[in-house]
Amino acid sequence: MIARYTLPEMASLFSDRNRYATWVRVEILASEAQAALGRVPHEAVEDMRRARVPDPARVAEIERERDHEVLSFLAAYCEDIPDASARWVHLGMTSYDLVDTALGHTLAQATDLLTGAARRLRRVLTGRALEHWDTAMVGRTHGMHAEPTTFGHKLAGHAFAVHRSLRRLQAARQAVAVGTVSGSVGTYALIDPRVEEHVCAALGLAVEPAPSQVVARDRHAQLLQAVAVLGACVEQIALELRLLQRTEVREVEEARTSAYQGSSAMPHKRNPTTSERLCGLARLLRGYADTALENVALWHERDLAHQSVERVILPDSLSVGHFQVTKAAELVASLTVDADRMRAHIDQTDGLVYSSSVLAELLGHGVERERAYRSVQAAANHTLATGEHFGASLAKQGIDLAGLGPERFLTHHDVIRTRLEKLHELQD
C-alpha cells in the first residue's frame, strides 16, 4: 500500500496488526465451537481469549526461522497461552481456513468503506447537478461543439454511473464475504461443519458451498472488477473536468489554496492536477482487476501462486479506489463553475449549434429531408468559411433563425431532473 494514496481507515484495516487480530478472532471462534461440541476444553478457550494478539515484529522474527507465516503466527500466539491449552489451538484446521476466512471478513469491511465513499460521491454529484440544472453550456461530440445542454445534465450522467457502480459493489461484497473452515482439501475430514457455521455466522460471512481448502478466487476477481469499473467512472468525471479546465475553455476550475504552485518554471500555470491524478489511479485499478483474473485458476484443490499477488492487489486496489473516490467527491464539491463563460461558448460558433433545431423546423413545415439538410448545411459551411453569423447565412437560404436559443433544446429536460431528484433522495 502506498501511503500517498491510502487514507488512515483503510491503512488500519489492512495492517499486519489488524490481520493478526482477525486471525486470533477466527481461532477463538473455532475453538468455541469445538468446545461446544465437546472436543476442546472450555478452560483452553478461556486461555486463548486472555492471550494477546501477537506482535507483528515477533511473528516476523519467527518466520525468519520457519518460512511460514501462519505457523509463525500460531507459534507467537501460543507463547502467551499455557502449554496445556495451546495444544488445542487450530485443531482440525488448515492454514487457509484461518487466512481466507479472516480475509473475507476484512474484504467485506474494506468494501463497506469504499461503498461509503462512493455514496458520498453520488450525493455530491446529484447535489451539484441540481444546483446547475439550468446552467446552459455547449454540448460537445467528437470534441466539437454540438448543441446546447446544461452542466447539471452532464453531472447527472456521472451521478447515475456512480449509482450503477454502487450496485456492482454491493454484489461484489456479497461474493467476497465468505469463509471456509473445512480442513485440508476442504472435505471436513478432521473438523465438524458446525465449527465453520459458528465462525462464519459470528463474522457475518456466508459459507463457501463446496470448498477446495480455499475460497474460490473468482469472488475476489469480481470485487476488483467492480472497483475498477467504479474507478473508470471516476476517471470519466475527472477527464471531463480536465477538458473543461483547458486554457481555451476554462468553464470550470479545481479549488486552489493560497499555497498552490502549478509549475516549477512557469508561475502562471494552474494545472488540473487533482483531475489528472484521479485519471492515473484508474489505470492502476484496471491493472489490479486484470491480475485478479489470473488468480482464479489454481492447481487442483489449491496452490500458492495467488498468495504473493493478493498481498499486493487486494489492499492496494481497495485503498487506491477508496482514495480516488474520496478525492473525487472533494473535487466536485469544491469545483468553481463559470456559468457566464459556458453561456458565451454557446454563441462562439455564431449560432451553428442551432442547426439541428433549424433542420427540425424545416422538416416540420413539410420541406423534403434531403433538401432541408443541404440548405442548412450550405448555410453552416458559409458561416464557417466567412465568419458571417449563421442567422445571416440562413437568411440567404430563405430561412429565418429568429427565436432560437438554448431553451429550445431543453423542452423535455425536466423528465431527467425528476429522475435525478429521486436519486438525490437516497441516503448516504
Briefly characterize the structure.
The chain has 428 residues and is mainly alpha-helical.
Question: Your description of this structure?
Answer:
The model has no long low-confidence stretch (mean pLDDT 93). This protein has 17 helices and six strands. The radius of gyration is 30 Å and the shape is elongated. It has a two-stranded antiparallel ribbon with strand order 1-2. A two-stranded parallel ribbon has the order 3-4. The chain has a two-stranded antiparallel sheet with strand order 5-6. A hairpin with a 2-residue loop joins β1 and β2. It has three domains: 1-91, Fumarase/aspartase (N-terminal domain) (Fumarase C, Chain B, domain 1); 94-343, Up-down Bundle (Fumarase C, Chain A, domain 2), CATH 1.20.200.10; 348-424, Orthogonal Bundle (Ribonucleotide Reductase Protein R1, domain 1). Helix content is 62%, strand content 5%. The protein starts with 7 loop residues before the first helix and ends with a helix. This is Adenylosuccinate lyase. One of its GO terms (molecular function) is (S)-2-(5-amino-1-(5-phospho-D-ribosyl)imidazole-4-carboxamido) succinate lyase (fumarate-forming) activity.
Percent in strands: under 5%
How would you name the CATH homologous superfamily of the largest domain?
A: Fumarase/aspartase (Central domain)
Task: Examine the coordinates and then state which fold CATH places here, giving the name of the CATH topology of the largest domain.
Answer: Fumarase C, Chain A, domain 2
How can the largest sheet be summarized?
2 strands, antiparallel
How many H/I helices? 17
For the record, the CATH class of the largest domain is: Mainly Alpha
Give the fraction of residues assigned to helices: 55-70%
Identify the strand order in the major beta sheet.
1-2
Structural class: mainly alpha
The CATH architecture name of the largest domain reads Up-down Bundle
> Which regions have little confidence, pLDDT < 50, spanning 5+ residues?
none
How many domain regions? 3
